[in-house]
Amino acid sequence: MRTKQPRYPAILVLTGASGAGKTTLIEKLNEREIPGVVGINCDRVKLDLPEGTSDRQAEVLRYWITQLSNDPKIRLAVLDTQVRPHAAQQVLDQTGGASSQVVLVNCDHPVRNDRLINERKQPELANRQMDCWAAYLRGQADALGLAMIHTDDVSSDESFGELDALISSLLSRARKS
């Protein structure tokens, strides 16, 4: 007897350092109420993962993709994460989603730190470790040839325009597969 394979929606993974603009993009997406498209902040769920889990962010991403499987109303899910790009790509490859993409949301250190300190009131995140994390993510995105949404020196509407173009492209690819 064959078991039914889960049906995964198209997945767009947004990754980036804290303050890069991922959540702002997700909020704008959800305000638009595009039929069949949902934006999810993956950090809003706390999972009890076994001690020693090597990549918690990848497991959170896997959790959300599993939760979205077989929901016929969702054609595309945009997931806000801080997962390493290569780990996100591995999770997407393992879940077998028909159409998926990993995108880096990025901005310069001074812009990100200003957002963290003044807008988000989280000065503890504006530190050297976060700067290094952002540089690491940028390096991985470059090495993997990933698309990037730059959120500095542009309005949030312009940044959303880039996201909207990626959404349209993924939905088009998903229809063809």
What can you tell me about this protein's structure?
This protein has six helices and five strands, in the order E-H-E-H-E-H-E-H-H-E-H. The chain is α/β, with parallel strands linked by helices and 177 residues long. It has one domain: 3-Layer(aba) Sandwich (Rossmann fold), CATH 3.40.50. The protein has a five-stranded parallel beta sheet with strand order 2-3-1-4-5, sandwiched between helices. The model has no long low-confidence stretch (mean pLDDT 87).
Shape: globular
Number of DSSP strand runs? 5
Number of domain modules: 1
**Average pLDDT:** 87
Low-confidence stretches: none
Q: Which CATH class is shown?
A: Alpha Beta
Whole-Å distance between the termini?
26 Å
Strand order of the largest sheet: 2-3-1-4-5
CATH topology: Rossmann fold
By secondary-structure content and strand pairing, the structural class works out as alpha/beta
User: What Rg, in angstroms, do the CA atoms define?
Assistant: 16 Å
Summed up, the helix count is 6
Summarize the structure.
With 177 residues, the protein is α/β, with parallel strands linked by helices. It has helices at 22-32, 56-68, 85-95, 109-119, 128-144, 156-176, and strands at 10-15, 37-41, 76-81, 100-106, 147-150. Strands 2-3-1-4-5 form a five-stranded parallel sheet, with helices on both faces.
Map the helices and strands.
Blueprint: E1 10-15, H1 22-32, E2 37-41, H2 56-68, E3 76-81, H3 85-95, E4 100-106, H4 109-119, H5 128-144, E5 147-150, H6 156-176
Parallel strand pairs: 1-3, 1-4, 2-3, 4-5
Helix pairs in contact: 1-6, 2-3
